[in-house]
Write a structure and sequence with these properties.
- This protein is of the alpha+beta class.
- The protein is 41% helix and 20% strand.
- The chain contains 6 helices and 5 strands.
- The protein has a 5-stranded mixed sheet.
- Strand 4 and strand 5 form a beta hairpin.
- Helix 1 crosses helix 2.
- The radius of gyration is 14 Å and the shape is globular.
Length: 146
């Protein structure tokens, strides 16, 4: 089984919204073969809590406005370090850059096919590392943040 066209449409709209709000390292995986609860995961990160919340708000607004969908669940608002939006067909994780490195969700889903994303979203790859180097928070040689 592969992600449905509707799931891919949601992922692309959400990825573009995250890129428009300067999200970092946006990536999506087709998890439909390994999970029965959803088709795809979208991951994005930001260097601070306020930006995490801004990205999530933009995704939610854009998906409601353009595609007429609301999340069935939104978790993590209080700390805004890792906010999850569950749209049933897709699950969106927007994490603070430090949480993104620590939890490394990409490692969990590395065997799943990566979904193509809009060019603006693809261009965000490596932005977290660039930001870390500019702010002096870069970690070890593996590119992990400290």
């Amino acid at each position: 089984m592969t992600a449905t066209d509707r799931s891919i449409e949601l992922v692309n709209a959400a990825a573009q919204a995250a890129a428009d709000r300067l999200g970092h390292d946006i990536i999506a995986y087709d998890v439909s073969d390994v999970l029965s609860i959803t088709d795809a995961f979208l991951l994005a990160s930001a260097p601070n809590d306020r930006q995490v919340k801004s990205i999530v708000d933009e995704i939610e607004e854009r998906l409601q406005k353009e595609l007429g969908v609301k999340p069935v669940r939104r978790e993590g608002d209080r700390d805004a370090r890792w906010i999850l939006l569950d749209y049933v067909d897709i699950v969106i994780h927007v994490q603070h850059s430090e949480e993104r490195v620590f939890y490394a969700l990409e490692r969990l889903w590395k065997d799943c096919p990566e979904l193509p994303l809009p060019e603006d979203a693809v261009k965000t790859r490596g932005k977290a590392q660039e930001h870390a180097e500019l702010t002096g928070t870069a970690g070890d040689a593996d590119g992990e943040l400290s």
